[in-house]
Specification:
Layout: H1 10-15, H2 22-27, H3 43-54, E1 61-62, E2 65-66, H4 68-71, H5 75-81, H6 92-107, H7 112-115, E3 116-120, E4 127-131, H8 139-156, E5 167-171, H9 172-181, H10 191-197, E6 201-206, E7 211-215, E8 231-232, H11 233-247, E9 261-262, E10 267-268, H12 275-283, E11 291-294, H13 302-315, E12 321-323, E13 326-328, E14 332-336, H14 339-352, E15 360-364, E16 368-369, E17 377-380, H15 382-387, E18 408-413, H16 414-421, E19 422-425, E20 434-437, H17 438-441, E21 446-452, H18 463-469, E22 473-479, H19 492-507, H20 510-519, H21 545-554, H22 562-577, E23 578-579, E24 586-588, E25 596-598, E26 606-613, H23 617-643, H24 651-666, H25 668-679, H26 686-694, H27 699-702, H28 717-725, H29 729-741, E27 754-758, H30 761-773, E28 778-781, H31 787-798, E29 807-811, E30 827-830, H32 837-844, E31 856-863, H33 867-883, H34 890-901, H35 903-910, H36 913-921, H37 932-941, H38 984-990, H39 994-1001, H40 1005-1025, H41 1052-1055, H42 1061-1070, H43 1073-1077, H44 1081-1090, H45 1113-1128, H46 1148-1159, H47 1165-1175, H48 1189-1194, H49 1199-1209, ...
Parallel strand pairs: 11-22, 11-23, 14-18, 14-21, 15-17, 15-18, 16-34, 21-22, 26-31, 27-29, 27-30, 28-29, 30-31
Antiparallel strand pairs: 1-2, 3-26, 4-5, 6-7, 7-8, 9-10, 12-13, 19-20, 24-25, 32-33
Length: 1419
């Protein structure tokens, strides 16, 4: 410990003189005798944690910012603390002026102009051209289509069709968005044909590009007039596309209006169908898939599209399946991601669905209640939902002979649904455990099942997925903007659900199925589909799970040919099952694709930037030392797992270390807090942060834990800000950006808003406290908020008043389905990169919505030479296989143009001295002179133990620019005496007198010195040992080789051979141990860049790329990476198999230890990800993959055998050791295992760190912690259910851990919690904005509205990337209603669709006006 004293005149000492340096002032800035231990377990820290962070005190917040007048009752003290700058919670101008000044002064020494390099607007001004009239199908197929349909067009045009080859010229950035977020294989049918089928006519224009707005007599209240909405081009094409996938050949729709009713015939009189209309309807048909995936980008109106489909299908009786010649009327089901989204769906349907289309809306879930005016809405309790009592007059819902049953919609959150309807039988491993659906076993069937946010059912091992798969249903519609949330394997869950409808169809046509089964034995046989008509039933084989499984599991993201295989084979599934368009996509008006229509302008323009942050030397040194410690931990765990790959329990410390990497890269101070809290019976779990929130912690109370033993105590507000940014490079840029772009009024005098996305709850909390301390209204949208609190926070952020929330921090792990934040905000900072780009983009799309009035600017932060480069590399590798499907037809030309546009980078790289040296010696090893300075230092220091972290940058308590801090000793913050008892907080925090210190550390001088030595020793140990303390490891030093040229036979061509990323990683794993120990990935990235040069003449001439070059996987990968670079706004993307950085500031001793571990590396992080994917939803060692998909593929099983295994797997229950229940693994950012491991390490880590036992530390890698929970039917945990965790007791110097986690894993303790009056209610209400909008529509038709003003009770979700990853709740975000509904108010006439059809699935036209099922209801 250190002890510092200063004179009795702190004001003079703190203010200093012109002759004094900042360091001299800092050394005098402590006004009392301070004893502060270092980073170690200590009663000192435990007491401070209890007092500062756990005891509930006044938060001193007003309008979301720190309230200075609540803390300081004396005006002079307030002036001194804020350096005589006026501040007041109600005067936003004064507060913003103070914040700008404090940020400027605190960042002055870090030279923000030079440390922040902003890149973006890549290839701005450059354009690419795409020909749209090219022949993309075989000639014979085109002729067959033309022979059937286009004769009708020719009869309308006597001159015949004109041969036109139009071009689309688009900026590079816009085209990159179109390729990444959409698919050329699934753009939908032409607008002209769809508008003809739906009887649409144009009624207005929308957006800066004047897109068409459409209206139809099918939807009389959506006419685009008087503020009412109409349909957009993408919506009418989506409606028709979904119907064609459901029905195959489309029947003619019948207009049911009062004026068309014939009293004598008792039917609606229809105008005759023209030949052109019939041609369009014939060509709109498709294979009868009975399902679809609607994957349009966020904000394109998927909800409105879905409601339109349901209303048409029910109103026209197209959802009544025929069995034995009789129609079967069954209800429809909508499953939502959470209760609040369920409330929104009910709200939308009830407002605008016609009574004939939807007779009744039944909703069930915790706290949901019907409003008085909602005559069609029926709310069921959990018990009523299970029994459907006769007293409620709901028997007709399950009466398949009652036509009204087909007009009922059930809306339920999927967690509630699965918890109530999906049960398992069997008690132990000796008993077969099977899953069952209570609805299916009761004979309850559905006509249509819709799953909103279908990423919730991507994992086939979860109860959620099985609860859908076990349903007896006719049609299935999956809605998600991200079919691949994380990796390509995410597709298998939706594929299997959709295939169930196809299986039922072919059960009735066994001969046809036999032909298909014989014809397609592998995914390479899918090329035969190119020779078939688009509506041929054989096209359905593209969705066969066995084929998709072989493609996904044989060609993972880490295999050499994955992207080419997906390019060749997965396109057929996309064409069959997925509709995916982006705001920059081009639709086409005509079948020949000669008249493109750009959706650009539908959503706001988005500019993407990457900010490369260069840390100062002291911070870079501290970070590199921490990173090397973490990398040693990581490599030890990786190598242990590689030796026993079948035991995925070894993955736990690997995943935990990855989380620590991200913490350290963002803030070494927060990384230190995590270690300090963990050593002293606290933590940075979501539950720990919730404890701090409930205790009212502010930055003044957190700041003492940031101080090193030798640091002076902060005295004025500026000192605290300097302390906050000292080791937090991400926070530095956030403050820099806020100063220049947020703290000034916008147009009309309105405040500016900023959205920050973050992965770590502790980082989010840290940023929130610092910004509140700077008197900025900042809030985090975290899992501890109740639905009502979330709703209020979102409403405040969408407001533009002075005291509304100005900065919101959005957690990736707190789901944001339906949360729209675009009304006042158009700026986003990505403070932490998500686990996958899909999740990251989903977060920023909260403000990229229809109705956004400003261009959006997105800034992605990245610290140079840090873990961020590795996370970025993994993001790219996860998305590349999916992007391979985009390289089709005209898009190939676009990709080639992009390659040639960027070829100058390759040419420039060839001219650099580094490249010339690399080409000359072909040496991929680190430079020999890199650590010469450290070696000299080591030799001079002898055998003295080194400290991992250098002395931290001292906090300057005052300098020339620091105003005065007070008038005397008593007025200083160190000795502050507050007037009110509630204000003892600051005195408690800072008055660390000698008596208090002696009591905590033992009292006597001898004991104090002993404790001081132990503290210093503990601090050094921890610094040397990373999160596990000082290691007792032996050095694994290997002899350093001189070059790697011999590995390539000193030959130029093998060295620069074109290879994809996976082959580079495979090459690295196969290098000799000594090469891996000293391998330089920076040189390898340069080598990869050079390989794209012109090797024929040593790049004397620029290489020209052609479409044929895209058949080379390496070239295709580069083309897709260039698209991603444009989208992300970055100048480079690295290729890293392991989280390595440059260690130029690390001692040679540490690097020798690391080198030995790197030499043993036999796997990369890609292999670990693959193993983690295989083990999700099941135990890793004791329980193998139940479906055995990967094993079946690797064993060469036939597709039929794989299909059979997958069918059997639907009912199989996941058996867990200790009778653990199967979990619905749900994550938005980290893969579940990333966070689960942290929770399992919590308790064992505390004891091991204190014990000093190396064996105990090693056990941290394998011992799980026991966890308990009480769960609801939705598999979430409410605050009311959480058992208070007992405090940790200390007895006889030994730590006895008694804490419990909050993760449920014991089915015997599972309890369904019924609704009760004490629970919060989800009211189905609209905000005023939406009510006004609906009012206009209600004037044109029969619409209904209701209000939603309260919601579910609080729920806690383990969101900490440094801790437990189990989602204790689902995404319960409160939503602002921006789904665009439709109004349907027309009469009923049946149109029956039979399952039978001809060999080409050519259904009858259903034009007959008679039949027993064609009874009509009068208007």
């Amino acid at each position: 410990m250190t002890q510092d004293t200063v004179s009795a005149h702190p004001q003079e000492d703190a203010q200093g003189t012109k002759e004094q340096t900042g360091q001299q002032v800092a050394e005098k800035a402590v006004s009392t005798k301070v004893s502060r231990p270092g980073l170690c377990p200590s009663p000192y820290w435990e007491k401070r944690i209890q007092r500062n962070l756990k005891q509930t005190q006044n938060e001193f917040l007003k309008y979301g910012r720190l309230d200075p007048h609540g803390i300081f009752k004396n005006q002079q003290r307030l002036n001194d603390f804020y350096s005589n700058r006026p501040v007041h919670p109600s005067r936003i101008i004064d507060n913003q002026n103070f914040a700008r000044w404090a940020i400027k002064e605190s960042l002055r020494e870090y030279s923000p102009e030079s440390q922040f390099e902003v890149t973006g607007e890549i290839m701005q001004g450059e354009s690419v051209t795409m020909e749209t009239g090219k022949q993309t199908v075989p000639k014979n197929i085109a002729e067959a289509i033309r022979a059937e349909g286009e004769k009708w067009v020719d009869s309308e045009d006597p001159n015949g069709a004109k041969e036109i080859v139009p071009e689309i010229v688009q900026e590079v950035g816009t085209m990159a968005e179109a390729i990444i977020s959409a698919s050329p294989n699934s753009l939908g049918p032409p607008i002209e044909a769809c508008s003809s089928y739906l009887r649409m006519e144009k009624c207005g224009e929308y957006g800066r590009n004047k897109l068409s707005i459409w209206r139809s007599p099918l939807f009389p209240t959506l006419d685009g007039e008087d503020g009412r909405r109409g349909f957009l081009d993408n919506q009418i094409t989506a409606i028709v596309w979904i119907m064609s996938r459901f029905l195959g050949k489309l029947p003619r729709l019948k207009i049911k209006q009062a004026g068309l009713w014939d009293r004598k015939q008792k039917r609606y009189v229809q105008e005759p169908e023209t030949e052109l209309e019939k041609m369009h309807r014939d060509r709109l048909r498709s294979p009868r898939y009975a399902g679809a995936i609607l994957a349009d980008s966020m904000g394109l109106g998927k909800t409105m599209t879905t409601i339109a489909c349901l209303d048409i299908l029910a109103n026209q009786r197209l959802n009544a399946e025929k069995e034995d010649g009789k129609p079967k009327y069954r209800p429809m089901l909508i499953l939502t991601p959470n209760q609040t989204v369920a409330a929104q769906w009910v709200d939308e349907i009830d407002h605008i669905a016609s009574d004939r289309g939807v007779r009744e809306i039944i909703v069930s879930g915790d706290g949901i209640q019907r409003q008085e005016h909602q005559t069609r809405v029926r709310c069921l309790t959990a018990s009523e939902f299970k029994t459907w009592p006769r007293s409620m007059e709901l028997d007709y819902v399950w009466d398949e002979g009652d036509m009204f049953a087909a007009r009922v919609i059930l809306v339920v959150a999927i967690d509630t649904w699965s918890g109530r309807t999906c049960i398992s039988t069997g008690d132990d491993e000796a008993t077969a455990k099977k899953w069952h659906s209570t609805f299916t076993e009761s004979g309850r069937k559905f006509s249509i099942v819709v799953v909103d946010e279908a990423y919730k059912i991507r994992n086939t091992a979860t109860r959620n997925w099985k609860s859908v798969a076990l349903l007896n249903r006719h049609f299935t519609l999956l809605i998600t903007a991200t079919p691949c949330m994380n990796v390509l394997a995410d597709l298998l869950g939706p594929v299997r659900l959709l295939w169930q409808g196809v299986e039922k169809y072919f059960e009735k046509k066994p001969a046809k199925w036999k032909v298909i089964d014989d014809m397609f034995k592998g995914h390479n046989d899918l090329r035969h589909l190119d020779q078939l008509l688009p509506w041929d039933d054989k096209q359905l084989v593209a969705g066969r799970p066995g084929l998709i499984a072989r493609l996904i599991y044989k060609h993972r993201s880490s295999t050499p040919v994955g992207i080419q295989e997906t390019r060749k084979s997965l396109k057929y599934f996309e064409s069959l099952a997925i509709l995916r368009r982006a705001p920059s996509s081009h639709l086409f008006e005509d079948w020949k694709q000669t008249r493109p229509v750009s959706l650009d302008g539908l959503l706001p323009k988005v500019d993407n930037f990457t900010v490369n942050i260069e840390p100062d030397h002291a911070l870079a040194e501290a970070y590199q030392n921490a990173h090397v410690d973490l990398l040693v931990d990581y490599m030890e765990s990786v190598n242990a797992w590689a030796r026993r790959k079948e035991d995925n329990s070894e993955l736990k410390p690997v995943l935990s270390t990855l989380i620590q990497f991200q913490l350290a890269a963002a803030s070494m101070d927060v990384y230190r807090l995590d270690k300090l809290f963990s050593m002293n019976r606290f933590g940075t779990y979501a539950t720990d942060i919730l404890t701090m929130r409930k205790a009212g912690v502010n930055f003044l109370r957190l700041a003492p834990f940031l101080l090193e033993p030798e640091d002076p105590t902060p005295k004025v507000a500026l000192d605290y800000v300097k302390l906050a940014v000292r080791k937090s490079p991400i926070l530095r840029y956030i403050l820099h950006y806020i100063k220049g772009n947020v703290l000034r009024k916008g147009p009309g005098g309105k405040i500016k808003k900023l959205l920050i996305t973050e992965a770590s709850p502790m980082l989010a909390y840290y940023y929130e406290l610092v910004l509140q301390f700077l008197l900025i209204h900042c809030r985090t949208l975290h899992s501890g908020l109740s639905p009502e609190e979330r709703k209020d926070l979102i409403a405040s952020f969408n407001d533009d008043s002075d005291h509304s929330c100005q900065i919101m921090i959005q957690m990736y792990t707190v789901g944001f389905a339906g949360t729209n934040l675009h009304r006042s905000c158009s700026q986003v900072i990505i403070a932490s990169q998500a686990y996958s780009l899909a999740v990251q983009w989903q977060a920023i799309h909260r403000i990229i919505r229809v109705g956004q009035n400003s261009d959006v600017r997105v800034y992605r932060l990245k610290v140079n030479n840090s873990f961020h480069s590795f996370r970025e590399s993994r993001q790219i590798e996860k998305i590349l296989p999916e992007l391979g499907t985009r390289a089709q037809g005209p898009m190939n030309d676009v990709l080639v143009q992009l390659l040639n546009l960027f070829q100058f980078e390759v040419d420039d790289a060839w001219e650099t001295p580094e490249a010339q040296q690399l080409l000359e010696d072909m040496n991929l090893l680190t430079d020999n002179t890199m650590y010469a300075e450290e070696e000299v230092q080591e030799s001079s220091e002898g055998n003295d133990e080194e400290s991992d972290e250098p002395a931290p940058k001292r906090l300057k308590a005052g300098n020339e620019a620091t105003p005065k801090t007070g008038t005397d000793d008593e007025d200083s913050m160190e000795g502050l005496i507050l007037e009110s008892p509630e204000h003892n907080l600051l005195q408690t925090i800072f008055q660390e007198n000698e008596e208090d210190s002696e009591q905590e550390t033992g009292g006597s001088e001898e004991e104090l010195e002993s404790s001081e030595e132990e503290s210093d020793e503990g601090s050094d140990s921890d610094s040397d040992g990373g999160i596990l303390g000082k290691r007792n490891r032996e050095s694994h030093e290997l002899p350093r080789p001189t070059s790697t040229s011999n590995l390539f036979n000193s030959s130029f061509r093998p060295f620069l051979e074109l290879k994809p990323r996976a082959e580079y990683y495979s090459e690295f794993k196969n290098f000799p141990r000594e090469v891996k120990s000293y391998f330089c990935h920076k040189k390898n990235n340069l080598r990869r860049m050079l390989s794209f040069g012109n090797l024929e003449n040593n790049n004397a001439e620029t290489r020209e790329w052609t479409v044929e070059d895209l058949d080379n996987t390496a070239v295709l990968e580069r083309a897709m990476e260039l698209m991603l670079r444009v989208r992300l706004g970055t100048n480079s993307l690295e290729m890293l198999p392991l989280p390595q950085i440059d260690f130029s500031l690390v001692s040679q001793g540490k690097l020798k230890e690391l080198a030995g571990l790197l030499g043993e590396a036999k796997v990369t992080d890609q292999d670990i990800d693959e193993a983690r994917e295989d083990s999700q939803g099941k135990p890793s060692k004791s329980q193998p993959d139940r479906a055995g998909v990967q094993r079946l593929v690797q064993e060469g099983r036939s597709i039929a055998e794989i299909d059979e295994a997958l069918r059997d797997d639907i009912r199989n229950r996941d058996i867990r050791r200790g009778k653990k229940r199967m979990k619905d693994w749900d994550f938005e950012e980290e893969a579940v295992a990333d966070q689960q491991i942290a929770a399992q390490l919590e308790v064992t880590r505390e004891g091991a760190l204190k014990s000093g036992d190396p064996d105990a530390r090693s056990r941290l890698k394998s011992e799980p912690r026991n966890v308990k929970v009480k769960t609801e039917e939705s598999d979430t945990v409410t605050l009311g259910n959480i058992k208070e965790a007992p405090k940790t007791e200390t007895t006889a110097g030994k730590s006895k851990v008694k804490r419990e986690s909050f993760i449920g894993d014991n089915p015997t303790g599972r309890r369904v919690k019924e609704e009760s009056p004490s629970r919060a209610i989800v009211n189905l209400a609209h905000d005023s904005f939406t009510r006004n909008r609906m009012k206009n529509e209600s004037q044109a038709g029969d619409t209904r509205g209701y209000s939603r003003d309260s919601a579910l009770g609080k729920k806690v979700k383990e969101e900490s990337p440094a801790r437990s990853p189990i989602d204790l709740t689902d995404d319960d975000n409160i939503i602002t209603t921006t789904h665009e509904p439709i109004v349907i108010d027309d009469s009923d006439e049946p149109i029956m669709v039979d399952d039978s059809d001809d060999d080409n699935n050519d259904n009858s036209d259903d034009d007959s006006e008679d039949g027993s099922d064609d009874s009509e209801e009068s208007p």
